[in-house]
Here is the input.
Amino acid sequence: MTIRIVTVYPDLLGTYGDSGNGIVLEQRMKRRGLNVEHLRVNSHHSLPKADLYVIGGGEDGPQGLAAERLGNDAFFMEAVRQGAAIFAVCAGFQILTSSFVVTDGSSRPGLGLFDAETIRTDAPRAVGELVVRASAELGIGEVLLSGFENHGSRTTVGAGCATFATVLHGVGNGIGNIEGAIQESRVGTYLHGPALARNPELADRLLVLAGSGTLSALDDERALDLRAERISSTGVAGANGRGGFAR
Here is the structure.
């Protein structure tokens, strides 16, 4: 069995290094000797059917163009209807909600793949390190996840979504202390980084959602050391820096 991963529109949604998430997923499969195909598909091409779509962040103009092209891509929408997994970050997450805000401050329809809405408020732009505690619904335990955020909008989550995580440092969705959303096999978050380079547990969870089956353990010392350093820099109380709290 081969898992196909598609990095969606890196020419439009690759501003913050999020295209690296697809590379991390590909390498974690290869390190285990498992079959994987990783395609990077720019916005002037139709998306092929995939087991996991990885969508990154970008500026307002490219975000609007990406939303238009994704919404008109019948192959992508059919793959989602058939249960393909999605990992969407920041602008990628926003365009999969019911609506999002564009450059002139107006709202435009999203793809509605999350029961959530992205709005603009008077709150300051969220910029900096983001530390969150994974929700039970994510299925990786109450591990601490780390990344950075850079967004002006805020996202409200409806009853059709589960919470991705609880914010310990930073802003996240900006509504309460909620970060991201989970709906079926779709995961949305404001964690940049690329997030999967810091958070191997999350990377493996996405591979399982994509149909990889049970995964063997890998040596993730370097990734965990990186996360420990970044969590330590925020001063999150009680964190041991390795994905949990000191006991």
In short: Helices lie at 20-31, 60-71, 74-81, 91-95, 195-198, 200-209, 221-234. The chain is about 25% helix and 30% strand. The mean pLDDT is 93.
